[in-house]
């Protein structure tokens, strides 16, 4: 349908329908904006004050988890106590800080919540059904729940839906209608594991849908965040195949704010047509706009939603029309509260002669009651979406609704709070012309691979195959100037499969080490003279080559050290970041710079390289750490000798080859695979090595610091040691912590890469009131993750690095059994170096489990009486690398910022995964020499400064000062 006259007619019809809806709807306000009520006035106040709005939502978000009146009052004070409001509102806010009124505060929030959320009681559901019948409207129900982190929680979600289905079948005259969230049907709904996630969700859905088909129910699949969209759609189509029965209506929600929405609409239409069956499509604009934008920006991914609201509105209208064009196979539900969008839908339906049964309008409970009445009064079929749940379970839903009601560009706010002119409300959406994106300046992290894109997953799988087919070679010892025999051979194996040999590496002898140092000394003079810009360019070229081979490098990590896909990719991305970041930093440090304006004298300072650098790297971030230390040394003008860990020599060899391919001279960058005890030690003690960059255990780090401090015969400079050591990192879980987040982030912080990150959490200090709930939920959540070879993406947890590591960790698990209580032990395959993850409670600060670095999947949970004690316990450690706090009390967050002295403190997020530049990483105290990698000061450790002062006075003539 098109043509100017048709469009003109459509606009005229929209204007007429819109006006009549508006006049009818303005007779009342939605309760949230009802200025007569107390809540209405607070909402109105909050609308005009962005900070108050944010504080109010933060407070409401915390409330369901607060047990005592004192806690409610404390949080009220913390969030809202600083508002100097006069009159009644000032008094209300001051009173709210009083514990005696905690009950009233809670009740008031409950009442707001009840506008949007129905109590999970049959009587309440009956009441809402009766209320809707009077409109008249039907309902679709949604059993809202907390984030599903355990299979028990997923099972409970399913049960709640089944009960709802039966209740509706009994109580309502119409077939039941239910909306489900697929991500709530399994604890692991992960796009990387498409088939596994789909299978797990289907296993639960089967049961539910069999009954739904019997009851001729309508079941609509809600659409969730962008990352899950592909997986949700795949599962939905699988449902359609598995339940081809006529007589029930399967439906899916599609989001108009997504630029790719038309493709998904077409896919559904095509499917429906090819199977000659009717499918429901609920057209929504999308509920996750703010999160999608923020997450995409954080990750540097393309933003998956429109940025101009008019584009969303325009696409909504186009898709409405598209759905209306297929009434024989599509049952459209136009879901929203926007006067223009609804008037457009009604007008478009009329133009096509669609009858009452051909489509419906859907609205959310409590969002726009007056508009509901207006739509119903026009004889349009109306259905209200009714979420059922208690406040704790429904808090995320409630906050989404409050944000949506009060956002600046919300239609509800514009209609009821701001009373916009009708012509504005009914104006056709006109997107602003898209501005060309300005080139981003400054450093930007490399985006990680988005594995929710099937093409990315396929490319990675292909890379794994390619890497495997090229394995089995021998890496020859190749130090220029010597043909000495290798000291031995190291057989590289796959930690997930003891029998799989990946390659053989010839090991360096001390003769090789001496020769490598001599080569590097010989190369120093000329490398130092290479302009910094050129050295930076070589780093950038290496980064480009690395990016070209990103999947293959990551695939090799999967096989050589047992990282899962995402972690391996993140390691490669971090390596690229280091190369580019240090290149940029060196360019900024290059050249002579005046120290101060000083008439008659010129004072200049310059950064210069220190000399031969030994780079002694660990295996746990096999590419990133080695690249970080090496690139900092190289770009600063120091020749490097790479001494990688034995367990990651194949990856190190790849880095070495890339640097040479980029153009770094062979004598400036030499690979010296050797044993730490012999070759590593020899390099540290060598008189011609001026710099040692080390990352690894505290034991070895301290030994290096000590040996490097001993001056040996022939030594010409004081050695500089850049040293990063281990941690015994603690996460504090406060009484008001969001447990959904605390459990999930702790799980990844403690068990990601099997606890073999120096930043990993190995202690949790939980406050008494949440200790038991946290511990049992964490154990249940961990139990959902099977352990297995990480090359299979269904396994995000794999083996530890070696048999030796396995035995050492197992000894700690035995020790833990005597020190505390083992509350969880997982199951692992026998084929590789697997350690079943273990969680202990009852551990005390003096226990060895709470003090020693284990470097494996073993977590100790300690219990604290209060936050201050928790902080003392966290700090009671010789290490100070990373730390974490889950709390929603601003005072506690402030206290942690001031007192929780570790190199990297993370608040309300996981404590691993630092990003170059944004989160410079490294420990203090006994965890490191305290200048963080990827930060503004790191590079300076690889340089020293020289100052030249020149008297420029000549017989009273003072030349103008330079610069
Ligand atoms: P309005 O016209 O005010 O539109 C607000 C919407 O515009 C935002 O939600 C966002 O999508 C978009 N937007 C805001 N700022 C923007 C910007 N700067 N640029 C581009 N777009 C911008 N949602 C969902 O994601 N999955 C689901 O399954 C469902 N299910 C559902 C069922 C029912 C019955 C209803 C009524 C609603 C949903 N929703 C949903 C929620 C729905 O997405 C949300 O309510 C609507 O976005 C609100 O749209 P309105 O037309 O009411 O408001």
Distance between the termini: 69 Å
Secondary structure: number of strands: 28
Shape, per Cα inertia axes: globular
Q: Give the rounded overall mean pLDDT.
A: 92
Main beta sheet: strand number and arrangement? 8 strands, parallel, barrel
Spatial strand order of the main sheet = 1-2-3-4-5-6-7-8
The small-molecule ligands in this entry are: dihydroflavine-adenine dinucleotide
Number of helices: 33
Question: Pairing-aware structural class of the strands and helices?
Answer: alpha/beta
Q: How much helix, percentage-wise, in residues?
A: 40-55%
Low-confidence stretches: none
What share of residues are in beta strands? Answer: 15-25%
CA radius of gyration is 32 Å
Written account of the structure:
With 963 residues, the chain is α/β, with parallel strands linked by helices. Helix content is 47%, strand content 16%. The chain is built from 33 helices and 28 strands. Helix 2 crosses helix 3, helix 8 (151-171) runs parallel beside helix 9 and helix 23 (565-589) packs parallel to helix 24. The chain is globular, with a radius of gyration of 32 Å. The model has no long low-confidence stretch (mean pLDDT 92). The protein binds dihydroflavine-adenine dinucleotide. The site of dihydroflavine-adenine dinucleotide has 31 residues, from strand 4, strand 5, helix 13 and strand 7.
């Amino acid at each position: 349908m098109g043509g100017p006259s048709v469009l003109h007619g459509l606009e005229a019809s929209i204007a007429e329908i819109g006006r009549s809806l508006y006049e009818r709807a303005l007779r009342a306000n939605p309760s949230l904006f009802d200025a007569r009520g107390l809540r209405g006035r607070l909402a109105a106040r909050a609308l005009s004050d962005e900070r108050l709005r944010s504080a109010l939502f933060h407070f409401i978000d915390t409330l369901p988890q607060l047990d005592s009146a004192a806690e409610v009052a404390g949080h009220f004070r913390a969030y809202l106590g600083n508002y100097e409001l006069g009159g009644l509102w000032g008094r209300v806010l001051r009173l709210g800080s009083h514990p005696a009124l905690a009950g009233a505060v809670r009740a008031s929030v409950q009442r707001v919540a009840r506008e949007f959320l129905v109590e999970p009681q049959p009587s309440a559901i009956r009441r809402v059904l009766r209320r809707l019948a009077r409109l008249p409207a039907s309902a679709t129900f949604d059993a809202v729940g907390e984030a599903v982190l355990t299979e028990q929680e997923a099972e409970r979600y399913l049960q709640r839906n089944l009960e709802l289905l039966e209740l509706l079948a009994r109580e309502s005259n119409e077939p039941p209608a239910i909306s489900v969230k697929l991500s709530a049907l399994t604890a692991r709904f992960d796009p990387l594991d498409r088939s596994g996630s789909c299978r797990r969700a289907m296993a639960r859905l089967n049961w539910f849908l069999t009954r739904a088909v019997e009851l001729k129910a309508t079941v609509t699949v809600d659409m969730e965040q962008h990352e899950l969209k592909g997986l949700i759609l795949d599962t939905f189509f699988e449902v359609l195949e598995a339940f081809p029965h006529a007589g029930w209506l399967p439906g899916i929600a599609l989001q108009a704010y997504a630029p790719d929405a038309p493709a998904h609409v077409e896919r559904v239409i095509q499917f429906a047509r090819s199977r000659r069956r009717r499918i429901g499509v609920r057209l929504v604009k999308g509920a996750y706009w703010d999160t999608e934008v923020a997450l995409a920006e954080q990750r540097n991914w393309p933003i998956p939603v429109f940025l101009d609201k008019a584009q969303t509105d325009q696409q909504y209208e186009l898709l409405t029309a598209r759905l209306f064009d297929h009434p024989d196979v599509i049952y459209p539900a136009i879901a929203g509260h926007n006067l223009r969008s609804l008037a457009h839908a009604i007008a478009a339906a009329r133009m096509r002669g669609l009858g009452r049964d051909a489509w419906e309008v859907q609205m959310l409970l409590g969002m726009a009651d007056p508009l509901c009445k207006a739509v119903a009064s026009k004889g349009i079929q109306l259905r209200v979406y009714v979420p059922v749940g208690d406040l704790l379970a429904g808090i995320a839903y409630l906050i989404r609704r409050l944000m949506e009601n009060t956002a600046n560009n919300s239609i509800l706010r514009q209609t009821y709070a701001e009373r916009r002119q009708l012509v504005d409300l009914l104006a056709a959406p006109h997107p602003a012309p898209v501005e060309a994106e300005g080139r981003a300046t400054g450093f930007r992290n490399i985006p990680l691979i988005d594995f929710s894109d099937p093409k990315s997953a396929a490319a990675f799988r292909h890379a794994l195959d390619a890497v495997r087919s090229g394995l089995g070679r021998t890496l020859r010892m190749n130090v220029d100037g010597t043909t000495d025999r290798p000291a031995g051979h190291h057989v590289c194996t796959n930690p997930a499969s003891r029998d799989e040999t990946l390659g053989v590496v010839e090991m360096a002898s001390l003769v090789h080490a001496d020769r490598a140092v001599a080569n590097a000394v010989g190369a120093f003079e000329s490398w130092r003279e290479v302009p910094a810009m050129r050295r930076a360019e070589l780093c950038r070229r290496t980064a480009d080559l690395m990016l070209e081979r990103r999947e293959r490098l990551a695939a090799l990590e999967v096989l050589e050290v047992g990282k899962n896909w995402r972690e391996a990719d993140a390691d490669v991305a971090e390596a690229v970041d280091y190369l580019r970041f240090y290149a940029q930093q060196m360019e900024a440090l290059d050249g002579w710079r005046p120290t101060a304006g000083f008439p008659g004298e010129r004072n200049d300072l310059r950064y210069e390289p220190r000399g031969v650098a030994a780079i002694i790297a660990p295996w746990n971030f096999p590419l990133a750490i080695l690249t970080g230390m090496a690139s900092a040394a190289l770009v600063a003008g120091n020749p490097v000798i790479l001494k990688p860990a034995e367990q990651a020599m194949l990856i190190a060899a790849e880095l070495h080859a890339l640097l040479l391919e980029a153009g770094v001279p062979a004598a400036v960058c030499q690979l010296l695979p050797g044993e730490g005890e012999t070759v590593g030690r020899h390099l540290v003690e060598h008189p011609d090595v001026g710099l040692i960059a080390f990352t690894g255990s505290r034991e070895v780090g301290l030994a290096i610091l000590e040996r490097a401090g001993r001056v040996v015969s022939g030594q010409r400079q004081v050695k500089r040691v850049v040293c990063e050591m281990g941690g015994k990192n603690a996460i504090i879980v406060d009484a008001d912590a969001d447990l959904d987040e605390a459990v999930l982030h702790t799980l990844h912080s403690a068990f990601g890469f099997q606890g073999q990150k120096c930043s990993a959490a190995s202690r949790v200090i939980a406050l008494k009131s949440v200790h038991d709930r946290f511990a049992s939920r964490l154990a249940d959540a961990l139990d959902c993750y099977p352990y297995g070879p990480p090359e299979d993406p269904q396994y995000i947890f794999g083996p530890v690095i070696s048999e030796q590591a396995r035995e050492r960790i197992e000894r700690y698990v035995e020790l833990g059994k005597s020190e505390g209580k083992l509350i969880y032990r997982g199951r692992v395959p026998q084929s590789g170096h697997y350690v079943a993850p273990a969680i202990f409670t009852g551990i005390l600060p003096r226990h060895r489990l709470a003090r020693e670095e284990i470097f494996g999947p073993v977590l100790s949970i300690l219990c604290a009486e209060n936050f201050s004690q928790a902080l003392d316990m966290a700090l009671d450690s010789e290490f100070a690398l990373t730390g974490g706090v889950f709390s929603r009390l601003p005072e506690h967050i402030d206290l942690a910022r001031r007192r929780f002295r570790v190199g990297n403190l993370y608040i309300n997020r996981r404590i691993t995964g630092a990003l170059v530049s944004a989160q410079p990483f490294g420990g203090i105290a006994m965890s490191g020499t305290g200048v963080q990698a990827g930060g503004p000061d790191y590079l300076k450790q690889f340089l020293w400064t020289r100052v030249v002062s020149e008297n420029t006075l000549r017989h009273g003539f003072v030349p103008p000062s330079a610069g």
